[in-house]
Design a protein that fits this description.
Number of domains: 1
CATH topology: TIM Barrel
Largest sheet: 8 strands, parallel
Number of helices: 11
Radius of gyration: 17 Å
Shape: globular
Bound molecules: pterin-6-yl-methyl-monophosphate
CATH architecture: Alpha-Beta Barrel
Low-confidence stretches: 1-5
Mean pLDDT: 93
Length: about 290
Amino acid sequence: MSTLRARGTARGLPEWDRCAVMGVVNVTPDSFSDGGRWFDTTAAIKHGLELVATGADLVDVGGESTRPGATRVDEDEELRRVVPVVRGLAAEGVTVSVDTMRASVARRAVEAGAVLVNDVSGGLADPEMVPSVAAAEVAFVVMHWRGFSDNMNSLAVYDDVVAEVLAELRARLAAVIEGGVDPERIIVDPGLGFAKQAPHDLALVAHLADLRALGHPLLVAASRKRFLGHILAADGAPPPPARERDAATAAVSAIAAHEGAWAVRVHDVRATADAVRVARAVEGAL
Ligand code: PMM
């Protein structure tokens, strides 16, 4: 079976002929890599359209920062940030996903045109999320998650990170399917940087094939994350800032595409779109 065919797609989403590129629009003042830049609705919509123009297949809109240590935004504020941006992008024909842990935000975003709910907690943060996604019949990202950002670093303890993430994801997938979400609509994600230290993230990237073997389309979201900063830090020097990690991000995108990922979630779309094209050309030459 070719890698392309093995990649799979999620029902309700367009089928891409390669690893898709998910561009990120964080409508937040404090996301760790682009906080504050797209905080205004008009700027956020414009940025989403720019991401599509540079090669994004879909755009992920979020209104709550999940950077390590972040505290939660309140529900009204999250709705205020997210819904108009989802509506504006969907009205322009963009395939939109909503990055939220709240069922109310997911429901309103779907009404506004989102076709995928990207919940970094995999439905654990809000008991209404799984029933809401099941009822809405939209695609759902189930990410590996152990707890909220304010204390997730203390949860980054593993004997065998790959085995434990796989086991916890399997349990989560079973619960989400038991809760009524169509298995064909579920995408899995290892949750790089969430309750993980740099060596954990690296081990997971090295074992993407095991994550693929869970049998669902795979989303990989390495963009600008701390483990890339660790890799890039020169001897004794601090890691480069988040916005100087885009070449490293594109390297992971090429690896993920080669390993059969369904999509990669990135801030800098252009470099990753090229990386994915290269991976596809190499596959084509096999
Ligand atoms: N990471 C962030 C936000 N949303 N969604 C998924 N599915 N997977 C991730 O790893 C993920 C996510 C945090 O990154 P950002 O603040 O730079 O957007």
